């Protein structure tokens, strides 16, 4: 077992473990840690806790210190100056007619670097812009092109469900989401129904996909023939949540009726087959 403290950086849902080096941290405490970018201000989300060694990525880095009043003041200054930087950056983009959309900016804690985040349809030549910005801010300038999903993750937004987007609240990383998942779940392929505010497929398509994929394989193929308590019939549709199928069966008087049967009530006949998940085309993945 090892004692850790869990921290989060700004605009990140991912939790990082650090060695508290004997300091007693409480929830929401500020902390200064060493990162590849230099010193960073972070917030405690998991107070000192014993965890199994297998949960730790070694070597476990130590915290530098608990944030002081001076550190908090430095953070507030960085956040305030960021707004000024964004305004100036927007003016320069407009003046130089550069095809980019400014998303956010941030100073590293020690102000050794000023980072601007932007989106663009393609590659952008911003070398002259960097020179202009460096002369204005007198620090190292870093321009980073991000994508639609990163844009929403940084700025935050409300998802179609009415709750904050998953990427801004609890998803540490983006996972692969595909059109195939929507097809298996029987969702409308209308982009307005399955795309998030970022314009890409909703991350939540992934959450219940394992259940739908496993259940899909158990269900009879639509159009196939099954044996039911009322005789042989043709599968019209499947309900994966209820694990039932609507089957068109012939009645004794020669007429047809559509009835609902559970998986247990349907028996495999010579012409019956289960749904083949591999046959579903996957037109788009990300």
State the major sheet: 5 strands, antiparallel
The value of Rg in angstroms is: 27 Å
Structural class: alpha+beta
Mean pLDDT: 89
CATH architecture tag of the largest domain: 2-Layer Sandwich
**Tell me, what is the CATH class of the largest domain?**
Alpha Beta
Rough outline: elongated
CATH topology (level 3) name of the largest domain: GMP Synthetase, Chain A, domain 3
- Number of discrete helical segments: 7
| Name given to the CATH homologous superfamily of the largest domain | K homology (KH) domain
**Strands in their spatial order, largest beta sheet:** 2-1-4-3-5
Strand proportion, as a percent range, falls in 25-35%
Helix content: 10-25%
Uncertain stretches: none
What is the string of SSEs from the N terminus onward? EEEEEHEEHEHHHHHEEEEE
Number of strands: 13
- Structural domain tally: 4
Between the first and last Cα atoms, what is the distance in angstroms? 38 Å
């Amino acid at each position: 077992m090892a004692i850790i403290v869990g921290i989060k950086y700004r605009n990140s849902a991912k939790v990082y473990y650090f060695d508290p080096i004997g300091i007693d941290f409480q929830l929401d405490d500020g902390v200064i840690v060493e990162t590849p970018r230099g010193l960073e201000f972070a917030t405690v989300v998991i107070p000192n806790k014993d965890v199994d060694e297998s949960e730790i990525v070694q070597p476990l880095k130590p915290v530098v210190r608990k944030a002081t009043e001076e550190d908090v003041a430095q953070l507030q200054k960085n956040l305030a100056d960021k707004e000024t930087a964004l305004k100036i950056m927007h003016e320069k983009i407009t003046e130089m007619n550069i095809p980019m959309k400014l998303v956010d900016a941030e100073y590293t804690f020690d102000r050794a670097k000023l980072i601007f985040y932007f989106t663009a349809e393609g590659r952008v030549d911003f070398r002259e812009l960097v020179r202009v910005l460096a002369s204005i801010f007198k620090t190292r300038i870093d321009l980073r092109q991000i994508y639609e999903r990163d844009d929403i993750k940084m700025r935050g937004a409300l998802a179609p469900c009415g709750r904050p987007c998953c990427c801004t609240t609890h998803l540490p990383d983006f996972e692969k989401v595909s059109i195939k998942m929507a097809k298996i779940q029987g969702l409308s392929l209308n982009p307005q129904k399955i795309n998030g505010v970022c314009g890409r497929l909703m991350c939540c398509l992934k959450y219940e996909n394992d259940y739908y994929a496993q259940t899909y394989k158990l269900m009879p193929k639509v159009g196939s023939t099954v044996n039911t308590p009322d005789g042989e019939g043709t599968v019209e549709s499947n309900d994966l949540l209820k694990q039932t199928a609507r089957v068109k069966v012939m009645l004794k008087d020669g007429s047809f009726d559509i009835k609902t049967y559970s998986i247990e009530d349907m028996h495999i006949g010579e012409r019956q087959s289960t749904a083949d998940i591999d046959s579903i085309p996957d037109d788009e993945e990300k």
